[in-house]
Amino acid sequence: xxxxxxxxxxxxxxxxxxxxxxTGGFADxxxxxxxxxxxxxxxGMLLALQALVRAGRLGDRRLDEPDQLGAHVAMPWGKAYRHxxxxxxxxxxxxxxxxxx
Length: 101
Fold this sequence. Notes:
Layout (H helix, E strand, L loop, with lengths): L5 H17 L10 H20 L23 H21 L5
Helix pairs in contact: 1-2, 2-3
C-alpha cells in the first residue's frame, strides 16, 4: 500500500475538518439530509484514512460515535448519513490510489 504524501493527506484532513465544522450540529438538524450526508462523508473519509495511514498522522480526529445516530438510522437523514459515509470511504480510496482490503 503506497504511503500518502503529506500534501495529499493534509488536503483530505482539511476537507474532513471543513465538513465537520459545517455539520457540527448535525444531530440537532433531523430532516436536513444534506447536512447528514456531508457529516457521513467526512466520517467515511476518516474511516478510510484510519486504514491507510499511521494513527499519529490523523491528529486527534475520531470517528463519530454510533449512538449519535441512534434512532435516526432508519430515517431518510440517517440513510443520507450512511450513504455519505459509504461514498466518502470509497472516494478516499480512489483519490489515494488504494483498494479497500
